[in-house]
TrEMBL record:
GO terms for biological process: glucose metabolic process; pentose-phosphate shunt, oxidative branch. HAMAP family: G6PD. Keywords: Carbohydrate metabolism, Glucose metabolism, NADP, Oxidoreductase. NCBIfam families: zwf. This is Glucose-6-phosphate 1-dehydrogenase. Residues 10-187 form the Glucose-6-phosphate dehydrogenase NAD-binding domain. Its EC number is 1.1.1.49. Substrate binds at residues 178, 182, 216, 235, 340, 345. The lineage of its organism: Bacteria, Bacillati, Bacillota, Bacilli, Bacillales. NADP(+) binds at residues 13-20, 46, 85-86, 148. The keyword Plastid does not apply.
Length: 497
């Protein structure tokens, strides 16, 4: 793996929300930790602003994300701005000249990272121009970082991939899934493969089911136009949720290298049971929020949000049962659910172990609780193991005890933002936590079968109240299997707080 931290970073969409809220503060954190050797940033966007104005906006975004910081003037002195029209070759030709000058000035060895932080319809055309107008013609490395969504379905993703691959090889493409930058998502592998008490049990003999919930309290906010073309299935399930399933289900890689890990993840995608036709409504549930209350404040119907169709058929919630038909997981459901305007903002994984073969104990006259391993992804980060232990003073009574490790309690100030880690990985040439094309293609193929059915049939929406945990059908999905959703609110990691 290359470790050359010298690079010219070109951010397309440098006046946008992502650049301001995530990319500039993340670059500053890398700078302040001396992780950037020689670097410069060229911000590229449509607006005509001066480099001074751009540097001020970078400064403002660092200040608002991180508060007052040292060396800010030195940091922003590495930032330059170029006004750009993504469809015009002349823009790229002048950008190329400017990039060559900056490269020579900072001695950046011809290393280039092109970060596409723009609307997805521009991804393909920019990649083609970068090649045809000579920006990728460099003596160092060249890497393309590309934001979500990667296509709208499998055919559009293939088309985008073909455009990108004319200019960059697969190894040079870094498809962002920001969940793969999250500390506890990266921890899944370590929890599984570094603990003798988990890995031997990590299969259909001992695990009853795995539940992944990613809930938001926010509604669609200002993103109505985009969300209407996406919905929860495309926006959350095809990428983030499927990536978590793959990390939980994959076989141990023979080595911790990018290729080995990706190859194990791809095998999980290949083993997904195809859900299509009439089965879609047996395995998946969709929902759309109606009016309700969040934090004691009334919130509107999805269909009354800005830029949303009054008769919208777009799902703001999805729950599903995913089956992985391989030797390890045959018969174990992976239940997933994600949605907007739900009770709590929370991403959690609950691994529910099977009941013991014979129960000798009672917990105040009811059966023992199953053992649970809860991985808290956000907002709190940590692990909780739910066990049964003897109740003090009792005779044969058992009670549930929770062993917790809270990442936030221990490393609060040091947990780097996901984007910081992903940018760092990209500069080091480590693509492990980015999505390979094969993963994208398999997950679109899976999701397309579901959206095909849903697009043909109009749902009875709205079907869940804002502030709830989704439609009743999502509960019934698990009840059919004799299961239920573990609540996301009382599984907290609280011990270290
Ligand atoms: P945005 O609308 O805030 O910014 C878009 C940027 O593109 C602006 O800098 C604008 O000047 C530039 N631009 C638009 N049209 C242009 C043109 N014709 N020529 C040159 N520049 C042009 O968008 P955003 O929220 O920053 O999102 C950017 C990308 O990141 C999208 O793909 C989005 O899906 C993805 N993303 C954003 C977030 C987020 O938190 N904002 C999170 C995850 C993914």
């Amino acid at each position: 793996m290359e470790q050359n931290m010298t690079s010219l970073i070109m951010i397309f969409g440098a006046t946008g929300d992502l650049a301001k809220r995530k990319l500039f503060p993340s670059l500053y954190r890398l700078f302040s930790r001396n992780k950037l050797e020689k670097f410069a940033v060229i911000g590229v966007a449509r607006r005509t602003i001066s480099t001074d104005e751009f540097q001020q906006s970078v400064k403002d975004s660092v200040l608002s994300a991180l508060g007052n910081k040292d060396n800010l003037d030195e940091f922003v002195s590495h930032f330059y701005y170029q006004s750009h029209d993504v469809a015009d070759s002349n823009s790229y030709v002048s950008l190329r000249k400017f990039a060559d000058e900056i490269d020579a000035h900072y001695d950046l060895e011809g290393n280039r990272i092109f970060y596409l932080a723009m609307a997805p319809e521009f991804f393909g055309p920019i990649a083609l121009h970068l090649k045809s107008d000579g920006l990728t013609d460099v003596k160092g490395y060249k890497r393309l970082v590309i934001e979500k969504p990667f296509g709208h379905d499998l055919p559009s993703a293939k088309e985008l991939n073909t455009q990108i691959r004319t200019a960059f090889s697969e190894e040079e493409v870094y498809r962002i899934d920001h969940y793969l930058g999250k500390e506890m998502v990266r921890n899944i592998e370590v929890i599984r493969f570094a603990n003798a008490i988990f890995e031997p049990l990590w299969n259909n003999r001992y695990i009853s089911n795995i539940q992944i919930t990613s809930s938001e309290t926010l509604g669609v906010e200002e993103r109505g136009r985009y969300y209407e073309t996406s919905g929860a299935l495309r926006d959350m399930l095809q990428n983030h949720m499927m990536q978590m399933v793959a990390l939980l289900a994959m076989e141990p890689p023979i080595k911790l290298t990018t290729d080995e890990i990706r190859s194990e993840k791809v095998k999980v995608f290949r083993a997904l049971r195809t859900i299509e036709g009439d089965d879609v409504n047996n395995y998946f549930v969709r929902g759309q929020y109606g009016e309700g209350t969040i934090d004691e404040m009334p919130v509107p119907n999805y269909r009354d949000e800005p830029m949303v169709d009054k008769e919208s058929n777009t799902e703001t919630f999805v729950a599903g049962k995913i089956m992985i038909d391989n030797f390890r997981w045959a018969g174990v459901p992976f239940y997933i659910r994600t949605g907007k305007r739900m009770t709590a903002k929370s991403t959690k994984i609950v691994v529910q172990f099977k009941d013991i073969p014979m129960n000798l104990y009672y917990q105040t006259e009811k059966m023992l609780n199953p053992n649970l391993l809860v991985i808290h992804i956000q907002p709190e980060e940590g692990i909780t193991l739910h066990l049964n232990a003897k109740k003090a003073g009792g005779h044969l009574d058992a009670q549930e005890v929770k062993l917790s490790f809270a990442n936030t309690g221990v490393h609060a100030m040091n947990t780097p933002e996901g984007y910081e880690k992903l940018l760092y990985d990209c500069m080091r040439g480590d693509a492990t936590n980015f999505t390979h094309w094969d993963e994208v293609a398999y997950s679109w193929a899976f999701v397309d079968k579901i959206s095909e059915v849903w697009e043909k049939t109009k749902a009875t929406f709205p079907n869940y109240e804002a502030g709830s945990m989704g439609p009743i059908e999502a509960d019934e999905l698990l009840e059919k299997d004799g299961s239920f959703w573990w609540p996301v609110t009382n599984l907290e990691v609280d011990i270290c707080k």
